[in-house]
Design a protein that fits this description.
GO terms for molecular function: 4 iron, 4 sulfur cluster binding; metal ion binding. This is 4Fe-4S domain-containing protein. Keywords: 4Fe-4S, Iron, Iron-sulfur, Metal-binding. InterPro entries: 4Fe-4S_dom. It comes from Methanosarcina horonobensis HB-1 = JCM 15518. The chain is α+β, with helices and mostly antiparallel strands. It folds into two domains: 69 residues, no CATH class; 140 residues, no CATH class. It is built from four helices and nine strands; from the N terminus they run H-H-H-E-E-H-E-E-E-E-E-E-E. Strands 1, 2, 3, 4, 5, 6, 7, 8 and 9 form a nine-stranded mixed sheet that branches. The longest helix is centred in the N-terminal third of the chain and has 17 residues. It is globular and about 50 Å long. The N and C termini lie far apart (45 Å).
């Protein structure tokens, strides 16, 4: 199947896939409809104006199909190369020009950095018996993030209302029951810090970028723990804000 539409490469996850490349794979296999992408428009197809020029690494002759559009294979190849480049090289500047010191990455074998949240109504943790393995949804309205998140619970404290979790893709929320807390504070993050400008310094407030942040905005937090492990620099960041 030839895909005649080029996604924006935002990797926002709204379609239920982790990346635009994954979404194209699933669409090409007939598992999902292109309309699941919030950026999809039927008239937004690839045409002669956005094809690779002769000066690019790939020529038009090797990239175009008989219908005059990019083949699915070449489109996926270009998308994957772009994603790899973004994942390897961080500029140290977010989408609005704010500089950040480091990127927070997940621990080895984990899908995302560990996140500690407190619902605006902390009593819901006890009332709804939220526990390990459950799925929680809501918006991190406390720090001011506009993106609705799906979170897999690692642990939940019924006394404090603190939920330890991983951020996962929204597809899980479409296939199982969820606890929709609607809005929550982000109490802390834990993960591996990858230095871009300056390493984390205990007791200081610094700007950082959560790995795979959907909106690409620098966050600020107080570094409350920092020690070296075989997997890298393990940090705990608290009082998370987007300023």
């Amino acid at each position: 199947m030839v895909i005649s539409w080029n996604p924006p490469g935002k990797n926002c996850g709204a379609c239920g896939s982790q990346t635009c490349s994954d979404f194209l794979d699933r669409a090409g296999a007939g598992l999902v409809e292109l309309e699941l992408c919030p950026f999809y428009e039927k008239n937004n197809i690839i045409n002669q104006d956005n094809l690779l020029s002769r000066n690019n690494v790939l020529s038009q002759s090797s990239t175009l199909s008989q219908d005059g559009i990019l083949s699915r294979e070449n489109l996926l190849s270009r998308e994957k190369l772009a994603i790899q480049a973004r994942n390897i090289n961080y500029s140290g500047v977010d989408v609005v020009g704010k500089e950040y010191d480091f990127v927070l990455l997940p621990f080895p074998g984990e899908p995302s950095a560990r996140k500690f949240i407190v619902p605006f109504r902390a009593d819901l943790v006890e009332k709804w018996d939220i526990k390990k393995g459950d799925l929680v949804t809501g918006r991190p309205a406390g720090p001011g993030c506009p993106v609705y998140h799906a979170l897999r619970v690692l642990s939940a404290n019924p006394v404090t209302g603190v939920i330890e979790c991983h951020t996962v893709g929204p597809m899980a929320a479409r296939t199982e029951d969820v606890h929709d807390v609607q809005a929550y504070h982000v109490h802390a993050f834990e993960g591996i810090a990858s230095t871009v400008r300056k390493p984390p310094v205990f007791g200081t407030r610094q700007y950082f970028l959560p790995g795979n942040c959907m909106i690409g905005l620098a966050h600020t937090a107080l570094v409350n723990m920092s020690f070296q492990k075989p997997s890298g620099l393990h940090v705990r960041l608290e009082d998370i804000r987007i300023l």
